[in-house]
Amino acid sequence: MSATLRFDNIGKVFPGVRALDGVSFEVNVGQVHGLMGENGAGKSTLLKILGGEYQPDSGRIMIDGNEVHFSSAAASIGAGIAVIHQELQYVPDLTVTENLLLGALPNRLGWVNKREARRFVRERLAAMGVDLDPNAKLGKLSIAQRQMVEICKALLRNARVIALDEPTSSLSHRETEVLFKLVHDLRADNRALIYISHRMDEIYQLCDACTIFRDGRKVASHPSLVDVKRDTIVSEMVGREISDIYNYQPRKAGEVRLAVRNVEGHPLKAPASFEVRKGEIVGFFGLVGAGRSELMHLIYGTRKKKGGEISLDGASIKVRSAGEAISRGIVLCPEDRKEEGIVAMATVSENINISCRRHYLRAGLFLNRKKEAETADSFIKLLKIKTPSRRQKIRFLSGGNQQKAILSRWLAEPDLKVVILDEPTRGIDVGAKHEIYNVIYQLAERGCAIVMISSELPEVLGVSDRIVVMRQGRISGELKRSEANEQSVLGLALPESSTTAEAA
Fold this sequence. Notes:
Blueprint: E1 5-14, E2 17-27, E3 31-37, H1 43-50, E4 58-63, E5 66-68, H2 73-78, E6 81-84, H3 96-100, E7 107-108, E8 111-112, H4 114-128, H5 143-156, E9 161-165, H6 173-188, E10 192-196, H7 200-206, E11 209-214, E12 217-222, H8 230-238, E13 256-264, E14 272-277, E15 281-285, H9 292-300, E16 307-312, E17 315-317, H10 322-327, E18 330-333, H11 337-341, H12 348-353, E19 361-362, E20 366-367, H13 369-382, H14 399-411, E21 418-422, H15 430-445, E22 449-453, H16 457-463, E23 466-471, E24 474-480, H17 486-493, H18 496-503
Parallel strand pairs: 3-10, 3-11, 6-9, 9-10, 15-22, 15-23, 18-21, 21-22
Antiparallel strand pairs: 1-2, 1-4, 4-5, 7-8, 11-12, 13-14, 13-16, 16-17, 19-20, 23-24
């Protein structure tokens, strides 16, 4: 039996970078084939070739034994291919219905039948088990909800080959369960699926086979994961062994650095209070929509708070904008790097220096280009950002390397006091996570107060000195590291009405 999909010696070169080098493997019908590798290893580039966004410089794609050429995304879709990219592609001012049926809206004589479109979408979403309002505008939805729209968009095309790039990176526990069920159903329906994830549990739970990429090359393929150890996959990915990814480093916390007292604002359901000491890492956990990111934006000044007090080193402060926060040594690395983080048309160096360059001005007017170059190069080396040079446009980097550049932007600030990290390792490979955790520990050793939001419970448990849990817009509890485990944290995170059912 021929493979449904085969990549045969695929190569792709960008200026200064060989993104793919002789990649060959196949995906059969009724199979979920995992792709793993570090950021910049070439996984997303391969999917963009499959989706018609890029054309390969060498090699060929075979479907059912026949060579195919995709000169555009439309050509790929027409051949029954659906690619769900890590970086979401949607129109924020259009509704869920309009985004899902974009290019295929039901019409008569050129007039769109909106009622029919909404009915069709409502029925299909219900059949998939997805709870979304067909009339809601995408720009008003959470990142997780937008992610589900992208997934549903691909499924509505009834594609026979479906590729998913980090599909759960923004999803809640319940939404992830819905996705897993959809993947199992698609496999049972004899679709061929490619699944990219940095989450090892997902690969072992969902995938029948797995291929490992490193530096644009295929370094290993496992036709079955039954007898493959996790340490083996990690070492194949990064080229070295990582015995403990979190490598927790205990330290003695100092005086209270950041104190938040009774802060109120949309969409919080109750006043929020917590504190972080010098050298302390406080993890914030909760289901998607619990209000963690929104609380941090109220503190950071990018959302208007209705009440409460914020103190820094014992002194009450007013923070009405991100600029005021940064000037006081408070920085925030946002969850949505595409919308709130990177400046897509700027270089890697400009993205790293965009905040701290105010310290490099000569006579208050002229930029010190030499100092900016030194800063960029030092962080490219420190965080191992894969880029041909600091002059490369950041939009050409992988999502994980973009995330590292954003983190570098705040690490470059000379007088950091509070660092708020919102999903700092979302979409980042295991080796890069290990490096970022070590940077977080170094910041804590310097006396910075660290707030880390993460939807990955093992990460929160592995890195934090103390854990604050939010549920439905309010802080539901706080746990010392010695008290925290999956059961105790989830017990505080899950809605009371569902705690028993979820635990069962």
